[in-house]
Amino acid sequence: MPEKYRSDTRASSLLELAERIQQANRSGDVQGRNEAHTAFHMVLYESCDFPALIDMIKMLWARHPWDELLSLPGLTSARDHHQIAELAAARDAHATAERLRAHLHSVRDALNAARRDRDDAQAEALLR
Question: Which domains does the chain have, with CATH numbers?
Answer without folding.
Answer: 3-127 (1.20.120)
